[in-house]
Design goal:
The chain is of the alpha/beta class. The chain is 36% helix and 20% strand. It has a seven-stranded mixed beta sheet with strand order 3-2-1-4-5-7-6, sandwiched between helices. The model has no long low-confidence stretch (mean pLDDT 94).
């Protein structure tokens, strides 16, 4: 079996470096439901949150009856999670973290230490819903090769007629340098060209992500068929 781009060592190392100085925080279930326009009735759906960090999204989805999973490379170590949470200080919401930590302790098999570019344990065409907020877009969009490897993997694990929800498009941090902003802007624009080249099996649109920022949007991709 051929090795996919996202499994290549330099792609994983690039992600490791890009994530090294990111505070360990987590988006709340409510904020993600609003920003991503997630299904209101998730019971029975196979759902995956990529780059989930300390989000309580997966915990709540499990409680609501979804077959839900979360991925983040830091999940490989409970000690690393606790240290990263403590280092994040006031940036991390205590209640969100507590819900996340309790769920991970109760359902460790649901929290996978995978890079976004390589989720080989999951089969092709598996999830009804795949989401990523302030992860693939926001942290991994400064490097086009990394970004496309992640997009390819998200498409692979999404089932036909399933959806991928990525946010936020067109939102930048106050302290981001001009070069980083330019890289991210260029790569976000290239995503739409990438999608147009795959119009035979992917459709897409955007919706406002107003709870994230006034100009921010969420990209929703629907998988119509498997790539040829």
């Amino acid at each position: 079996m051929l090795e996919r781009t996202g499994q290549l060592p330099h792609i994983k190392e690039a992600q490791r470096q890009m994530l090294a100085n990111i505070p360990f925080t987590g988006n709340s279930f409510l904020s993600m439901m609003i920003a991503l326009d997630l299904p209101e009735k998730p019971a029975g759906l196979r759902m995956l949150d990529v780059g989930s960090g300390a989000s309580d999204l997966t915990a709540v989805l499990i409680a609501l009856g979804a077959d839900a999973y979360a991925t983040d490379p830091i999940y490989s170590s409970s000690d690393a999670i606790l240290k990263a949470y403590e280092d994040a200080g006031r940036l991390a919401d205590p209640l969100t973290f507590q819900i996340f930590a309790k769920s991970r302790a109760q359902h460790p098999e649901r929290y996978k230490p995978f890079f976004a570019s390589d989720m080989s344990e999951f089969p092709d065409n598996h999830f009804d819903e795949v989401s990523s907020m302030l992860a693939v877009i926001g942290h991994l969009d400064t490097d086009w090769e990394v970004l496309t490897a992640c997009l390819e993997e998200l498409v692979r694990v999404t089932q036909i007629e399933g959806k991928i929800r990525l946010s936020p498009i067109n939102m930048f941090g106050k302290n981001e340098g001009e070069q980083r902003k330019m890289q991210r802007t260029q790569n976000q624009l290239r995503i739409f060209d990438w999608l147009d080249q795959r119009s035979g099996y992917l459709e897409y649109g955007t919706i406002p992500a107003l709870n994230v920022g006034p100009s921010a949007s969420t990209l929703i991709i629907e998988k119509l068929a498997s790539p040829a």
